[in-house]
Design a protein that fits this description.
heterodimer; A: alpha/beta; Glutaredoxin; 7-stranded mixed β-sheet; 27% helix; B: mainly alpha; Ferritin; membrane (chain B); DUF305 domain-containing protein (chain B); DUF305_CopM-like (chain B)
Chain lengths: 251, 222
Amino acid sequence: MAKDRTPARPGATGNRAKGGRTRPVANVVAPQRPWGLIAGALVVVLFAAAVITYAVVKVNEANANKVESPDDISGLQAYEYAAGQEHVTTPVEYTESPPVGGAHDAFWADCTGTVYDVDIRHENAVHSLEHGAVWVTYDPDALSDGDVEKLADLVDGVSGRMLSPYAGLDSPISVQSWNHQLKVDSADDERLAQFADLMTRNSDFHPEVGASCENPDFLASPILAGEDSAPVGQSDMPTTTTPGATETTEP
Amino acid sequence: MTEAPATPVPPARPGGLRTALLAVIGLGLLLLGGGLAVALGIGQDGGPATPTADSVDAGFSRDMAIHHLQGVEMANLALERSEDAEVRQLAFDISSTQTNQTGRMQGWLSLWGVPPTGGERMAWMADGHGSMVMDGLMPGMATEDELTDLRGLSGAEFDVQFLRLMIRHHQGGLEMAQYADEHAALAAVRRLARTIAETQTAETGTMTDMLAARGGTPLPAP
């Protein structure tokens, strides 16, 4: 603060000649700005502003497109099928199309990142949902090959997902997991990946936590929608590979 | 001497401005301190307490993992022995699911520093469930003699005996799962316990139908 000391002006010192004690001359002159304080305040304010801005930017970045619950995905429909549904060999009349839960076949459809190019039997697919699979379906008449390719990219190689065409779908694309469904019009809809990332094997939402998606026999020769139930799974019968299911991204 | 030494001249005090600047600095430092505290996580507690060895969470994880592993052992035998596609599919489902769930529970135990063996079976359940443990075997578990007998069977005989033992095994584990669903402290543990209780109840129904279809009769429930 010493630097801020105001020097006496000549006029103010005139009294000295007369022998009187000098008096403090405060407020005699125009007050000097406290530059040190101003600089200090400026530094602190700028630094605090920088830190807070950085924090806000980081938090916003982290929250961008962040989906933490099904409620965060607009248009998602939730259902309430109880765990422990019956295994049946008979056809099931599902309320939802595609189905999202209910009674199902004893043999699940392979869902090891499987891209089917056939309409797989729904009763087998529902068993896959029970195991935590995300099942992406599309109306083959509504999508271009390029669109199907985009859906296959979402599924291919990601165990816990499967893709199949679905005849009679009421929207171009529908993605479902146990008790959850989202219908969208475009393969570019960002909610597709959000749904798939959130729901694939999400142990909060499917009944059989830890269950497998593997069924190589179903993968080799899938049962088609409308066909009868058949034991396609852990059988001793040799199975021949038929066209129908591939793990490539061919639509 | 008329010339007095120059008295130090106090600095001019634009009082309002100075106070305001000091306030700004103080506030700025306060914000910085708060920001740092948040960034460093000071003041947050470490989440729920780690379950101790005698807690429901740890007791369930340890005992259900042990119970599950015998189920996996029997299911793997069925995968090897059975020639019935439906039995083999069921066996694969049980083997893969219970192996996965055992890994979850043993992973928790490892994080909590609780050994996966040791302790007293089912002592974590209130009201003397520990007395349900016979010769170290929890309810529903097969004895070594029963396992030896199962290993000696084949064909339809094997399928029937496998289903009988597995039905009883599922029934025996149910009470532990239901107890942990109601009493475990951690949500993840309760969730897995409920999953086990619900799906094994359904699977018991499926196996009972399969057993009847193959002409077998169930063992007495544990």
